[in-house]
User: What shape does this take?
Amino acid sequence: MTLELRGVSYRYPGYRRRALESVDLRVGEGAIVGLTGRNEAGKSTLCLVASGLAPASIGGELAGDVLVDGESLRVLRTHELAARVGIVFVNPASQLSGITGTVFEEVALGPVNLGLAVAETVARTRAALAAVAIEDLAERAPNRLSGGQTQLVAIASMLAMRPRHLVLDEPVAELDLEGRRLVVEALRALASGGTAMLVAEHDRELLAALDARIVTIADGRIAVPA
Ligand SMILES: Nc1ncnc2c1ncn2[C@@H]1O[C@H](COP(=O)(O)OP(=O)(O)OP(=O)(O)O)[C@@H](O)[C@H]1O
Ligand SMILES: [Mg+2]
Assistant: This one.
């Protein structure tokens, strides 16, 4: 369960300027790498590239390679990619599928798409809801939640998939202290199972609580060597 960027440079579609330049970064099995940097440094871009969404889904031009368990993302199709690397975005509402009627269905969607049996799907969904203490939201409509609740649903959705690789872009931005504590615990548990995790985050305290190795990005380049 490793995630590795080798000499990665990336340009958004329609832009000349490279948002990432010669990035080398390795996240080993069970490791949590915390990605910090100022606004516009390239954290979110690195998350998009590390998860394979860029360029596969949003276009643009990639040089170098992103390797998942040593295998290049270039050769994986989009649906295979989704099964390989989980991503939690900075804006949790954008992450809701929009096709489910309840939070329970929303969190179950990942396991269902993985083709898991019903009993396993239900068990994982319950466990994921419990991990971030949102069992009481199970029957609520996903589009009628507060920002913090939506963020917890997005994280529960990822936990339910038990991804081997997980990329999180400011996953706790809308959470209070108790929500952050729950997320830290859940992510540490996932990492102790071997998941390779990349967390873009301004909050150093959160990264310390995660025991993350800190990597800093500035102007699209890794400033502190990985
Ligand atoms: N969709 C896009 N199209 C073109 N350029 C983009 C796009 N998204 C981001 N950029 C540019 O890429 C650079 C890096 O932005 P990015 O969003 O990765 O920064 P960030 O470190 O996540 O910042 P923040 O802390 O504000 O979230 C910026 O110059 C930004 O303007
Ligand atoms: Mg960002």
